[in-house]
Amino acid sequence: MKIYLSQFSEEEISAILSWTPNQKFLLEWAGPVYRFDTLREQLKKDLEFSLEYPDKFQMYSVVSVEDSQLIAHAQLSIDGQNSSAHISRVLIGNENLRGKGIGFQLIHHLLKIAFVKLKLNRVTLNVYDFNHSAILCYKKAGFKAEGLLKDNTKFKDVYWSTIPMAILKSEFPI
């Protein structure tokens, strides 16, 4: 399945809500910033910020080329002063579409935006150490682990560790 990225819109918030069954799942794909009970409002606020400050923050809808169906979501935070960006909140919505290469295509599109369009030097992301499929996807895209943040996120009585990853423009085959 081929994809393209488009500007996230308020109409697509409902899809993200439908893809997110509970706080644990939300924490897995979005990190600790979003809360399950206020997700709609937080997404609206972030969308407003992205529209006002596209040089700092961008929200993307991932759409199937074949049928124009919304299938995923991702965000890009931009640090122009340091010529870097951070990929976050990557979510392939439909479980049946996971593991089919969509994540790799999505990351590749984001890296092209960062390195070609925005002319940045470095892109980072964070992934929980138990998310093996995402780690493999990011490594395939050229990201390298830069350590381990041990037990840095707590969900109920369990601690999760985070792997920060990065890629430089010089490491990206354009």
UniProtKB/TrEMBL annotation:
Keywords: Transferase. Residues 3-170 form the N-acetyltransferase domain. The keyword Transferase applies. It holds the Pfam family Acetyltransf_1. Coiled coil: none annotated. One of its GO terms (molecular function) is acyltransferase activity, transferring groups other than amino-acyl groups. The keyword rRNA processing does not apply. This is N-acetyltransferase. InterPro entries: Acyl_CoA_acyltransferase (IPR016181), GNAT_dom (IPR000182). It comes from the Bacteria. PROSITE patterns: GNAT (PS51186).
